[in-house]
Specification:
Length: 229
């Protein structure tokens, strides 16, 4: 670890961002940032964030509320009048769970935080496997955003955007997490329940399939636990 450098890590409380934090922790001191945006499982995700931050003894942590997402709507995660769709792992269209331009908002907050605390990098757990559904998970998006950061911050500010798991499958992410002793048991991925994971939303399905492909039992509780292949 380079103790002279600090990284801001966007941690949703989910598995991808947890493993991303584990990777960042090998190289940097950690400042973790979490965004509440009116999602259905906001309370449970916030709990997961704090538990992950405690696990890594994060030097700094920041929680930001972006309530405008609930006013904008357009996503089943933030608009209660929309149903969370059942899992369809073969879907190639933008799903109803897509929160319009969410990653740009998360990165913008992270850049502001990074510039103030003198962070050298921002880590975000984006996965290209999700890019067919979520356009703001594409590698080109993050490359372009880093260029925008260079143009929009002070001349002496140099912040690199790191997406270390972007080309990983869910199984790869799980295996990496196990390798790095990431606290996968503390993470929460479900889109719609906070007591037990529903097991039937896209996020639960990708997670369950990943654990099956990795040959590891998912440690979180499920209301139902289908077999996804």
């Amino acid at each position: 670890m380079n103790k002279d450098k600090i990284a801001v890590v966007a941690v949703s409380g989910g598995m991808d961002s947890c493993v991303t934090a584990a990777i960042a922790a090998q190289l940097y001191r950690l400042a973790l940032i979490h965004i509440n945006y009116g999602q259905r499982t906001e309370t449970r995700e916030l709990r997961a964030f704090h538990e992950i931050a405690d696990y890594y003894k994060a030097e700094k942590r920041l929680v930001i509320d972006l309530g405008h997402f609930t006013k904008i709507g357009g996503s089943s995660l933030t608009d209660k009048s929309m149903k969370v769709a059942k899992a369809d792992l073969e879907n190639k269209e933008v799903p109803s769970s897509y929160v319009p331009f969410r990653n740009a908002n998360i990165l913008s907050a992270s850049v502001s935080y990074s510039e103030v605390i003198g962070a050298n990098a921002i880590f975000i757990g984006a996965v290209y496997e999700d890019a067919s559904g979520y356009p703001d998970c594409r590698p080109d998006f993050f490359k372009a955003f880093e260029t925008m950061v260079d143009l929009g911050t002070k001349p002496e500010t140099k912040i690199k955007i790191e997406t270390p798991i972007i080309h990983f499958s869910k199984a790869d992410i799980i295996k990496k997490g196990i390798e790095l002793n990431a606290p996968l048991h503390l993470t929460w991925s479900c889109y719609q329940r906070e007591d037990e994971a529903c097991g039937v939303c896209d996020s639960c399905a990708f997670r369950l399939r990943g654990f099956k492909q990795a040959g590891i039992e998912d440690p979180v509780p499920y209301n139902v636990r289908p077999e996804y292949i």
